[in-house]
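[scheduler] slot 2 assigned
[scheduler] job type: sequence-to-structure, two independent chains
[scheduler] chain ordering preserved from manifest
[runner] begin chain α
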Amino acid sequence: MIRYLLRSLREPDTLRHIFVERLTEPVHLNLLSVFVALFGSLRTKVDFDLIERRYHAFGLLRAADYAREIGIDGLTVIEFGVANGAGLLNLCKVGKRITEITGVNFDIVGFDTGLGLPIARDFRDHPEYYSQGDYPLQDKDLLLRKLPKNARIEFGNVGDTIRGFLTDVRAPIGFISVDLDYYSSTVDALTIFDGPSDLYLPVVVMYFDDVKRELHNRYCGALLAIEEFNSRNNLRKITRLNFLNKRRIFRNATWIEQMYLCHIFDHAIRKNPLKANRGLQAVWK
């Protein structure tokens, strides 16, 4: 528990996580967390929110479990918005641990300009929060040296790099983290779902970072990008992950409200009731 808290001090909003989210939960659960931190399995630590960047751990494990249920042993994991690489490196570290317990391997891909945010186009990009040049990659060579062999970064404009990437997807896409700040960049990122249905799990787990601030709203930013995506697509829909807070041990965490699913309604498994019963219902219950 102490080691987890020390690591978490490096994360944004740490004080809120500890004093508003964690310590407002029942005392017996926080006491039990100490035992879990010392002796619990990785799955139990994920359940108790004891893994750094809890949304990564949950998303990767959920995607891996579902992949295993339907006989898939490899997944593509994507992070839109790499910045200095802390999130991408965390995906690599947590992914390695999840591979060890599930047998599902991850191909981890980051997308970033490497130059920070471009100029905001209009109010929909939330210029009250984000500005040109925010979150640049300060040491590209150092980050690339730190990446393991199963990870890489696609540098450039997201809308351009996705088109080439979709011709070279090495395993079905199972988890996507979106942290691009702008509406316009998030619109581009969601073109990742323009490929044929077999490029994806039937349900892709998603985390949206930029939906939690007070002025975020359905008419700007990532929330508007999601609404427009759903309006444009009949067979691909992004929805909130239903009642996740009711199924978590610790229910006050902000990240719970940031988890989404992209449903691939034209996926082959959704046309086969037998496979659906063995797969979708087994995991997503």
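[runner] end chain α
[runner] begin chain β
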Amino acid sequence: MKSASLVDIRGLRVEFGPTAHPFPAVDGVDLAIDAGEIVGLVGESGSGKSVTALALMGLVDFPGRVRADRLDFAGRDIRAMNAREQRALAGRGIAMIFQDPLASLDPCYTVGYQLEETIRLHGNAEERSSGAMRRARAVSLLREVEIPDPVARLRAFPHQLSGGMAQRVMIASAIAGRPQLLIADEPTTALDVTVQAQVLALLARLRAEHAMALLLITHDLAVVSETADRVVVMYAGQVMETGAVPDIFEAPLHPYTQALLDALPEHNLDRARLATIPGVVPGAYDRPAGCLLAPRCRYAVGRCHAQRPALEPVGSGRARCHFPLDARGRPTRGWEAERAAAITS
């Protein structure tokens, strides 16, 4: 049965290391993206955000192992595709903008050569067969991403571009194949604040003009609040919470989401130090038996350390927590009683 969503991922697991004792970089992720929707994928480094996107594009190489109950794009099963079909999908169906544009562009070739090569592989029939059409399309793409004097920029090498200009070239390359889904992996990390705002505005405009869906991977919750329709919060390879942007920011359901919001500078204006989350994301050899957040969670009680919670519907969203938060930001479902019992014992 075909899914109604453009992207339908269920039970995605990406493992590394020996098969006897694998490390799940992505551990049972469910993710759906509708056509034209902007989804923000947030979480600390090591949460599995980028690996989830790479698995969707078929870019997880050996020794990584990808398994899923469902891994569909536009009604097609990515798991059933051969290598040639996956290469065609990564460009025409799904395109990705990586974190460091200067590391993604080849320093030995001009901007024009690299753009035209992308168009030759993923453009329409006329563009693939005609060099003049490819050059015209490359100029049009640079103009579309607001690069001044696009004809001259075709002759430039990557090292001659600023960080913001290089990122615009990467965006032009990503949309060259007219994809249905654009994945932006930390697209503003290496840019200053002014250029960040320009790049985000550019992505939002291109998404609307090309009717693309956008998966925005970021650490910056402020970016998500201004750009996305829906938020998916990941931690240690698992989805901890999903919900609409207003719901997540006004009343988070999961303590991890609450802690991320508490660490925002604008939430710490009256404090001498920024709020932080103690500890680190668990790795291959220190994964807890219960909830993966339990060693760092301010509300963890006995059940949290012993039982791993499932991702369940809570109100209009979903949360992976034994004691999801209420509108006041306090745990529910008998947390007070369990905490009191633990103290008295």
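[runner] end chain β
[qc] chain β: The mean pLDDT is 91.
[scheduler] slot 2 released
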